[in-house]
């Protein structure tokens, strides 16, 4: 009862002033398209190197497509991002993991974070659950000792106030996009979570290109620094070193004794660019000078003439009908030949009632307009 009461009190009493992201940050996120993220969907792994050069842990990141449902029925495509690291710090084992579901607009709909330190007599684990429901983002942070929650904090934020938010899981995807662009928006401010899961600001800065030895090969890497600015604590900063396709070659947390690096060059991801459409120049066609085309023209002409002559021989009434029409046309000499022809051939139509041609000169014609 006391734990439930403390959760309720912390949720009701917490009123935080949420900072705002800059317009440039929101514009940057809105312009990232799915086709630009597609080459960023891959897995990679690094190792943790101590200051003495010993391998003390591992670090892995996976980004892939998946489906997400908030109610168990309606699903939407999203990105599933999972990152985990494990190793030892000063002989103390640690593990961290982040699992996030990110929409195509890079909005976080759910995120799970676990951080644990395995002391001999005092194992401690921090579990954080972030979920988006009905226009609100709910955060639950619990500190667990020996499988018992000793402290629980809950927060909720209005999603309308979180434009420009980049969670820890979304950050891994955004960094890959920046790395592939080899460009970072300068002077813009994003939103993020601090160590206590309160909303704070974060910034990205490009530190330019550097040389890095990967295995037996020296490669150029693009360096990005990310800083999270908490109101109550000193800023936390990380430096990320990227290959040209977005693979992470090195990661350094400022102040940490361990450095994450890759041991060998990965197979770089290349995007297939469509070949340009061929352009054919327009060549004038002089078919009368072309022997082959002119021969085909003569053959087709003779074929049509023979076909027309055969048709006329098989229908002698055609010659008589045309002779009658031409004779009457020359006698009347009408100004409107088309209307005259329509009136002459109208009695032969199956859709008209039978009648005599030009039965009455004063009878209104359907082919002429009368005012």
Outline type: elongated
Radius of gyration: 40 Å
Largest sheet: 14 strands, antiparallel
Which structural class matches the secondary elements?
alpha+beta
Main sheet: which strands, in order across? 8-7-6-5-4-3-2-1-14-13-12-11-10-9
In which range does the helix fraction lie?
10-25%
The H/E string reads HHHEEEEEEEEHEEEEEEHHH
Give the terminus-to-terminus CA distance: 97 Å
| Structural domains: how many | 1
GO biological process, one term: cilium organization
Pfam family, one: CATIP_N
Function: Plays a role in primary ciliogenesis by modulating actin polymerization.
Subcellular location: Cell membrane; Cytoplasm, Cytoskeleton; Nucleus
Fold and architecture overview:
This protein has 371 residues and is α+β, with helices and mostly antiparallel strands. It has one domain. The protein is 24% helix and 37% strand. The protein has seven helices and 14 strands. The protein has a 14-stranded antiparallel beta sheet with strand order 8-7-6-5-4-3-2-1-14-13-12-11-10-9. Strand 10 and strand 11 form a beta hairpin. The longest helix is centred in the last third of the chain and has 24 residues.
Structure summary:
The chain is an alpha+beta fold and 371 residues long. It has one domain (2-261).
Search tags:
371 residues
Task: Describe the SSE topology.
Elements: H1 2-13, H2 23-30, H3 34-37, E1 43-49, E2 55-69, E3 75-89, E4 92-102, E5 108-117, E6 124-133, E7 136-145, E8 148-158, H4 168-181, E9 190-193, E10 199-214, E11 217-229, E12 236-242, E13 248-253, E14 259-261, H5 291-314, H6 316-332, H7 337-345
Antiparallel strand pairs: 1-2, 1-14, 2-3, 3-4, 4-5, 5-6, 6-7, 7-8, 9-10, 10-11, 11-12, 12-13, 13-14
């Amino acid at each position: 009862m006391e734990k439930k009461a403390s959760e309720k009190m912390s949720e009701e009493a917490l009123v935080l002033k949420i900072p705002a992201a800059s317009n440039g940050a929101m514009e940057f996120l809105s312009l990232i398209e799915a086709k630009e993220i597609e080459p960023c969907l891959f897995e990679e792994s690094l190792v943790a190197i101590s200051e003495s050069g010993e391998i003390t842990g591992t670090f892995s990141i996976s980004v892939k497509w998946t489906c997400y449902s908030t109610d168990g029925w309606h699903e939407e495509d999203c990105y599933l991002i999972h990152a985990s690291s494990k190793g030892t710090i000063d002989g103390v084992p640690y593990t961290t993991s982040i699992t996030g579901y990110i929409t195509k607009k890079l909005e976080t709909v759910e995120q799970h974070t676990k951080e644990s330190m395995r002391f001999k007599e005092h194992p401690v684990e921090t579990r954080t659950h972030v979920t988006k429901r009905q226009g609100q983002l709910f955060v639950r942070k619990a500190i667990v000792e020996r499988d018992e929650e000793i402290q629980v904090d809950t927060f909720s934020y209005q999603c309308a106030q979180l434009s420009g938010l980049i969670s820890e899981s979304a950050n891994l995807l955004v960094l890959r996009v920046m790395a592939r662009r080899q460009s970072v928006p300068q002077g813009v401010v994003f939103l993020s979570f601090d160590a206590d899961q309160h909303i704070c600001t974060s910034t990205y800065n490009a530190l330019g290109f550097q040389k890095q030895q990967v295995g037996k090969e020296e490669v150029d890497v693009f360096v990005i620094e990310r800083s999270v600015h908490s109101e109550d604590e000193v800023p936390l900063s990380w430096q990320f070193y990227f290959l040209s396709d977005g693979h992470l070659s090195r990661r350094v947390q400022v102040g940490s004794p361990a450095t994450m690096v890759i041991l060998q060059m990965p197979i770089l991801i290349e995007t297939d660019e469509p070949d340009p459409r061929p352009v054919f120049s327009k060549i004038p066609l002089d078919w009368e000078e072309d022997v082959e085309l002119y021969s085909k023209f003569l053959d087709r002409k003779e074929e049509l003439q023979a076909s027309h002559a055969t048709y006329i021989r098989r229908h002698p009434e055609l010659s008589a009908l045309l002779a009658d029409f031409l004779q009457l046309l020359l006698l009347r000499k009408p100004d409107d030949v088309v209307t005259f022809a329509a009136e002459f051939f109208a009695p032969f139509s199956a859709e008209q009632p039978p009648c005599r041609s030009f039965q009455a000169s004063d009878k209104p014609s359907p082919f002429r307009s009368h005012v």
